[in-house]
Write a structure and sequence with these properties.
It is built from 21 helices and six strands. The chain folds into three domains: 10-137, MgtE N-terminal domain-like (MgtE N-terminal fold); 148-249, CBS-domain (Roll); 279-449, Tetracycline Repressor, domain 2. The chain is mainly alpha-helical and 452 residues long. The termini are far apart. The protein is elongated. Strand 2 (174-178) and strand 3 (184-189) form a beta hairpin. Helix 14 (219-229) packs across helix 15.
Length: 452
């Protein structure tokens, strides 16, 4: 199915397309029915919209709706919007609750209510409870199917229960221990169950669940708990410490990837843009930050305008000043990227912020000195003017220092006021380096040569 470059082979895609066109259900079941859900997701993204709907219709009950969790939001919305709610309801009844919620959460409230109304009572209650939690919370990502037993059961009773009970998750690594009111008491790992005699009571082998995740917790914070403690699964509890679900490592991996992509896109000012978005949607997502960038560029231009007389008398300044601003911008971006990521992973906090600020200050000065020497020599030879080399070298040190400080202080300040530094940092950092760079270089030249 895949080529060496990781893309779907054209011949496989053509074969599936031909089978769809011929309505060859047997060929589709053979070629698509055996694929992993992630592979089906890749296939759906590669097909044109008409083929996607036809593929789902032709496969019928053999289509794995969990594949919709593997496609981007825009394509999933197109597919779901094209399907009747009754068909979606039948599919949701077969999915794990976390996958069902992932698909349902983007639907209109009216469609959600209609689909949920067609589900069995127990499943409807589970899904409504998950959908009631905030977006991107642990409650939204949790799976409500789990194995829970009372502490007075024996290991033998627990094993028999797992063998005979039909309504259990397909895979799990922990058994949770609860009291009659569903308050979480502890957990037992499956390997411990297998190594313990049947007559031993559960409360003798259970361990305290030290890393239970509140349902209201942000999914990124929950992922950090998994990363810190190397968890495979974790209990999710409500505000009363009652067990309501379980987070598993496969969902957490998706969260980590999603959050990393989100931070990267926001730093570029493109929000939650998807590759499948329309021209209109892509334009709308990019225009706001481009407008902000335009405003900050005007501020930098106003600084240049203060020294128009200086530039008119010495053309070399107009040639060299972009170099100062560009070097500062690149240096600031390096610092800002490290800072934003450290804030996202909680590696940067009040306890080590002072040390990191001092480190970045020293790095900024050292980089400034190195490139001041290089650029000073280049400018002196280029324009046969040592004084000009000294001026651009000094401006370079000033701007590299400003870049280092802006790259770390602006994200910290934005984070302190509850503003996502991944979204807003780049615009303000670039403005600082442009303004300081232009002002330092042109100001020093104006003062030194007596222009103005």
């Amino acid at each position: 199915m895949y080529g060496e470059d990781g893309a779907i082979l054209p011949e496989f895609l053509a074969h599936v397309g031909a089978a769809i066109g011929d309505r060859d259900i047997l060929a589709l079941r053979q070629d698509v029915g055996s694929l992993h859900q992630s592979e089906v997701g890749d296939l759906l993204e590669a097909l044109i919209p008409e083929q996607r709907r036809a593929l789902i219709d032709l496969l019928g009950n053999d289509f794995d709706f969990s594949a919709l969790t593997e496609v981007d939001d825009a394509i999933r919305a197109q597919i779901v919007d094209a399907l009747p709610n009754e068909q979606i309801a039948r599919a949701m009844a077969e999915l794990d609750s976390d996958d069902a919620v992932y698909i349902l959460e983007d639907l209109d409230q009216a469609d959600q209510d209609e689909i949920l109304a067609k589900l069995p009572f127990t499943e409807r209650v589970r899904l409504r409870r998950s959908l009631a939690y905030p977006e991107e919370s642990a409650g939204r990502r949790m799976q409500t199917e789990f194995v829970a037993v009372p502490p007075f059961w024996t290991v033998g009773q627990t094993i028999d229960y797992m063998r005979e009970e039909q309504d259990l998750p397909e895979s799990f690594s922990q058994i949770f221990v609860i009291d009659p009111t569903f308050h979480l008491l502890g957990a037992v790992d499956l390997d411990r169950i297998l190594r313990t005699k049947r007559g031993v009571k559960i409360d003798e082998v259970m361990h305290e669940t030290r890393h239970a995740v509140p349902a209201q917790m942000d999914q990124e914070e929950a992922a950090q708990i998994f990363e810190q403690y190397d968890l495979l699964s974790a209990a999710v509890v409500d505000e009363n410490e009652r067990l309501v679900g379980v987070l598993t490592i496969d969902d957490v991996v998706d969260v980590i990837q999603q959050e990393a992509e989100e931070d990267l896109l926001r730093m570029g000012g493109v929000g939650d843009e998807e590759l499948s978005d329309t021209v209109a949607a892509t334009t709308r997502s990019r225009v706001p930050w481009l407008l902000v960038n335009l405003a900050t560029a005007i501020v930098a231009s106003l600084v240049i305008g203060l020294f128009d007389a200086t530039i008119q008398q010495m053309v070399a300044l107009a040639i060299l000043m972009p170099i100062v601003a560009s070097m500062g911008g690149n240096a600031a971006t390096q610092t800002m990227t490290v800072t934003v990521r450290a804030l996202a992973t909680r590696d940067l906090d009040i306890y080590n912020a002072g040390r990191i600020i001092r480190r970045e200050t020293v790095v900024g000065i050292l980089n400034g000195v190195v490139f001041a020497i290089v650029m000073g020599v280049v400018a002196s030879l280029w324009f046969d003017d040592i004084t000009l080399g000294v001026i651009i070298g000094t401006a370079m040190v000033i701007n590299m220092l400003a870049a280092a400080l802006a790259g770390i202080l602006i994200p910290l300040l934005l984070d302190r006021f509850g503003i996502d530094p991944a979204i807003a940092s780049s615009v303000f950092v670039t403005t600082v380096t442009d303004v300081v760079g232009f002002f330092a270089f042109l100001g020093l030249a104006s003062w030194w040569f007596g222009f103005g």
